[in-house]
Hints:
The chain has helices at residues 4-27, 34-52, 71-79, 85-96, 101-121, 127-147, 173-184, 197-206, 219-223, 225-236, 253-259, 268-279, 285-289; strands at residues 160-165, 188-191, 211-215, 241-245, 263-264. By secondary structure, the chain is α/β, with parallel strands linked by helices. The chain has 2 domains: 4-147, no CATH class; 160-289, Rossmann fold (3-Layer(aba) Sandwich). The chain has a 5-stranded parallel sheet with strand order 2-1-3-4-5, with helices on both faces. The chain is globular and about 50 Å long.
Amino acid sequence: MTSMMDIVADATSAATKGLKRARQAAFGGVAAAAPDRAALARLIETDIIPRLLSGHDPHSRPAVAALPPAMVPLLARALLADDSADAMDMVTGLHAAGHAAHDLMEQLIAPAARLLGEGWLQDQHDFVDVTLGSWRCQQLVQMLAARTPGAAAPSVMQRHALILPAPGEQHVLGAMMVEDAFRRGGWATLSGPALDEDALVQLVGRLAFDVIGLSAGSDPVLAALPRTIAALRRAAGWPVFIVVGGVAVSGDPAVANRVGADAAACDAAHAVALAERHLAGQPSARAAIGVGG
């Protein structure tokens, strides 16, 4: 079976070799046809990114000095280079120096991704810059997770969390970071790119989850959540705890109430704390309804 490291290596090689060619095809003048842009977007969204979204079990590490704010723009520039080696070296060096994986994700990688998005809105970066930079952020998250594997727990007693972008949401980095926080807390998790509502409901109907976490980054995505969450509750057949987060939620309990969720999380650690406080003293969903691991 092909390993995750093989997949990462293949994807990195393909992206690096094709970066200049992709920029020329997408933005190079006469040769820049719309089908080329669409093909590039499909390749990244449906092939490369899903390949990088596998499970991981990172543990936290002892805290060291806070990261200097200047590191964020430095990483953002490294993410836009033709070769991703500088970005990888920067993050692996900080991790080796004692910075915890989750701190690097939340204090460095996520802000760098936001900086790329701001640059796109201000026409400082093109589509290929931002798409490849965002994918490299996900690659860095996956690399950090692979460097710090965690411990397993008995599957029937372990709590299970489904962490996904809400249907229609294109940004997956935030959901990946929330999944990482749950895994570090000893949870079994399932995550990936956004599913459409029907596929999401079918998944929840087949598997028993204690928690479902959904991220929403825009008002249109948020507007569809009441119907989705109601369908998920019907499919679960169990009082699953549903927490929402993301830019469109901003940790506001009123938003959670409006869409039918149980809670709104400000960040990854808050999502875990909310779930564990709500479920304290209760059996896991799988233990309670007799579902095996």
